[in-house]
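In the previous lecture we treated proteins in isolation. Real proteins rarely work alone, and many bind small molecules. This record shows how such a complex is specified: first the sequence, then the SMILES for pyridoxal-5'-phosphate.
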Amino acid sequence: MTAKKTTHINDIKELLCTSPFGTFFGVPQQVFDRVWHRLSNPDGNSVVYISMEIGADPDVFHPVMDFLTEQEYRESKDPDIQLLLNKYLHGPRKIPNYSGGLGVLAGDTLKSFADTHIPVMAVSLLYREGYFSQIVDSRMGQIDQATSWSPEETPSLFQLEDPENPGQPLTITVPFYNEYDHPTLAKAHVWMKMEISEELDYFVPEFLLDYSIDSSPSWVREAGLRLYNSKSTIMKANQRRMLGTGILPLMKALGLTARTIHLNEQHGVTVTMQLILRQIEETLGPDFRSRMTDNDIRAAAEEVAKRIVYTIHTPVTAGHDRFDRSLYTGITQDSCIQILNLLASDEESPSQYNFTAFAMRVNRAVNSVSRLHRDVTRKQFPQFADKIRAITNGVHHLTWISETRAKVFDNSAALSGWRDDPGVFAHADLENDRTFRRNLQKAWRHDNHVLADYVSNMLVEHRRQMVETWIDPPNYFSRLDEVVKLEPGVFTIGFARRFSTYKRADLIFDDIPALADILVRNNWRINFVFAGKAHPQDEPGKSVLKLILDNQQELYTLSNGLARLVFIPGYDMKIAKMMVSGVHTWLNSPKRPLEASGTSGMKAAMNGVPNLSVMDGWWVEGYHEGKTGWKFGYEGPLNEYSLSEDPATLLYAEDSLSFYKLLPGILELFYEQPGKYLQIAVNNLLLNVPIFNTHRMAAEYVREYDLELDTETAANIAGFQELYRSDVVDD
Ligand SMILES: *Cc1c(COP(=O)(O)O)cnc(C)c1O
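The predicted 3D structure, ligand included, written as C-alpha cells:
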C-alpha cells in the first residue's frame, strides 16, 4: 500500500499505552493521552454517541492488523508483546454487537470521527450472545441460534480495570428504581473497543457495558445477553434503560465530560430523563422528588435539550419504541412517571409512552438520514417540522472499498490522497485514463470471481454436510445430483439486507414466468445472490426469506438453467463487503418511502458498482439522471398509503412490472456494450464517492449540531463540509 502514513512508528512497543484503567494496544501513548485529555477536559467540548448497536467487525477494517502485517511483525522476544501479537494476528475477528444498518452506520461513523480527529466517545452494550446466528434450512427457513464469541480473545477490545484495585475489573453501579422507590443496583463491567484511525494517530473509544455479570440481578443479566431481546416487553424496555441510564454513571467513573449527547436513534433516551432529574435536583435540592411540578420539569427539559442531538433513522413503526404506561408503573418511581407523562405522551395512542416523541421533544437539533426521509419525518411530526433537518448517511470508504479496488486507486496518480480525502474523486480526471479503466475492470472481474467461487464452494460444502448429517441445505442447488456452480462473468445481481416485509426481497420474483421469459428469449444468463437475516420475532420477515428459497427451483427450471438464485446464510459485514464489490449491480426494492436511507447501496457505489433501485432513501440523491445506475417503481406523490406496511399496500404488481420493463436494457448493456457499462462504474466513483462517505457526514454533523471544535480539528474537516449539503430542498 503506497498511501499509508504509519511510518512514524518505529517499534511495535510504541503501540502500548497505559492509563489508570489498564494497558491498551494500538496507538502510541501520546495519542492515547491526547484523546483522553480532550474527552475529560472541563470545557466539555466533546460528544457522547449513544447507540444500541455498533457494527465494526475487525475482519473488514483493522488498521493495527494492517500495520503489523505490513511491517511483518510476527514474533517478539518479549512474552507480553508476543501474546498481543498472537491475539492480533490470529484472534477472532467478529464483534457481533449489531443487527444491521443502524449498527454498521454507527461503526462507520465512529471510524470517520477517528480519522478526522473529532473528539467523541461512544456507548453501547456488550451482548454475550450477540444478536443471533442464522442457520438456514430449505424446509424450515431461518433458524436462530445464540452467537458464541469471546470478548476476552478479541483484538482491540479491552476490559477496563478499577483504578482503586488494579487488576480487578472496573464495575459501575446503575440504580434502577421500582414503584416504591426501592433501588435495584445493576452492575456492569466496562469494555473498551478502540476505533483507531487509519494512521494510528487518533481513536474513538467505544464503551460497551456488560451487564451479564454475577453481581447483577438475574433480570438485568438476561436482558443484557442479546441485542434486541424482545422475549418479553419488559425485557425490551429494560434493555433500553440499561443503555440510557448507564451513561451518566459511566462518564462519572471515567471522568469524561462531554457536554453534547448524540442519540443514534431513540433507544438510549432515558439518559435525557436522568439529566432532567439531575437538573431539577440542582434547583430544588435533595428532596426534589416530592416537590417537583410540571413547570419544574419543563424548565429542566429546556436546559437539558441544549445538550441533546438526535438522529432519527426510520419512518417504520417497528423502529420506534412504544411501551404501555401500565408497564412503567411497575418498574419505575413516581418522579420518572411524572416526566414520562409530560414528555413521552403519545397523541395517537394515549395509553402508551412513545420514546421517539420524547427524543423529538427534548433536543437542540434533530436530523433525518436522507432528504426524502426528512420530508417524510416532517409529515410524521408536523409540530417539529421546522427543526428537522437532513444529514444524508454515508459509509466509511476505507472499510467498504475492496482491497483489489483500493490497489487500483492507490496506483492512480489522479486519485492521490483518496484514503484521507474521499473528496479527491470529485476532481479526478478519470474520463480518458485508459490504464485506470482497464485496471478497474480487472479488479471488478477479480472481485466477481471471488464471490462466484465463494458461492460455488459453499454449495458443494452444504452438499457434503447434507450427505454426512442429513441436514437440509439452504439452497436447492446443493440437493441436485449434478454440481451447479456460479460462473464468473455471468451478470450478477446482489441483494442483502434485513428481511423486513417493507424491503420486499421477493419483489422481483413476483412473476417468475415473466422474468424467465426475458432470459430465455435472449439467451441471457443471470445470477441472483441474496443474503440477510430476519429478526427472530419477525414472522412475516421470515416468510419472505423462505419464499426466496422456495423460488429457486421454479426460476432455474423455467429459465432452462439460465437463472441461478442462491442464498448465503449468516449475513455479516464480511459477506456484505464481498457481495457489494463482487456483483454487477446492487438491487434495492423497498416500498418507497419506507427505506429512510439504506447504506449497502452506498458500499456498492464506493466500488463503482451501479445501483438498481427504487427511488427511495439515499438513491434519490445518488441517482444522477441515470449516469450511476437505474431506477424503477412508484415515484409519485406520498399519500396516506405511502407509510402503510399493510401487505395490500406494498405495490408488488406495479413495481415488479416496472422492474421487468427495465431489466432487458441492463442485460443488453452489460453483455453487448461493456465499455458503456464500465462508464457507469466510473461515474459512481466521480459522483457518489465524494458524497456518500461518513467523513462528509461527520462534517455535516459538526455543522448542523454547532459543535465547538478547536481550530486544528475544524480545519481538518472544513474540506469535507464543502463536499455536499444534505439539507437543501430538491425539486
Ligand atoms: C451495510 C449493512 C447493512 C445495511 O444495509 P441496508 O442497505 O441499509 O439495508 C446491514 N447489514 C450489514 C451486515 C451491512 O454490512
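Summary for your notes: The longest strand covers residues 183-196. The two ends are 43 Å apart (CA to CA).
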